[in-house]
């Protein structure tokens, strides 16, 4: 069930990113500030969602949930805890998830600033 939560968070982040892109473009070209603000709020949800997804993958790696293909290919029962956690970026899928989380986190920090500045 934990991997399902991570997958749902990742899919929700994808939908949020698509919405944020469309809403910001629409708001920019139509000159409607409410759409731009809506896109800004949608963008700010990406970091927590991708963080949740990353944490669920780390959890699956640590407990050895080998039903997940990623866990089965990047970790083993004999690995120490440190290597299980760092296996998050040991494969392409986990690395892309991790970098997406980092970029969303930096974007979140920038979005905390006031628009007027």
Which secondary structure elements does this structure contain, and how are they paired or packed?
Blueprint: H1 2-30, H2 33-44, H3 46-63, H4 69-74, H5 81-86, H6 92-111
Helix pairs in contact: 1-2, 1-3, 3-6
Kindly state the percentage of residues in helix: over 70%
State the end-to-end distance.
44 Å
* Major beta-sheet overview: none
Q: What is the SS-derived class?
A: mainly alpha
Mean pLDDT: 91
Number of helical elements: 6
Give the H and E element order: HHHHHH
What Rg, in angstroms, do the CA atoms define?
17 Å
- Shape summary: elongated
Low-confidence stretches: none
Number of spatially distinct domains: 1
Number of strands: 0
**Strand residue content:** under 5%
Notes on the protein architecture:
The protein has helices at residues 2-30, 33-44, 46-63, 69-74, 81-86, 92-111. With 117 residues, it is mostly helical. It has one domain (2-111). α1 packs antiparallel against α2 and α3 runs antiparallel to α6 (92-111).
Pick out its properties.
mainly alpha; 78% helix
Describe this structure in a few short sentences.
The protein contains six helices and no strands.
């Amino acid at each position: 069930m934990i991997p399902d939560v991570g997958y749902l968070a990742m899919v929700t982040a994808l939908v949020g990113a698509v919405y944020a892109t469309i809403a910001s473009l629409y708001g920019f070209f139509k000159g409607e500030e409410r759409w731009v603000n809506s896109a800004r709020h949608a963008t700010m949800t990406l970091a927590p969602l991708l963080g949740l997804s990353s944490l669920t993958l780390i959890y699956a790696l640590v407990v050895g949930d080998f039903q997940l293909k990623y866990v089965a290919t990047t970790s083993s029962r004999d690995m120490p805890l440190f290597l299980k956690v760092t296996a998050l970026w040991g494969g392409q899928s986990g690395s892309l998830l991790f970098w997406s989380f980092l970029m969303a986190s930096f974007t979140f920090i920038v979005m905390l600033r006031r628009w007027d500045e």
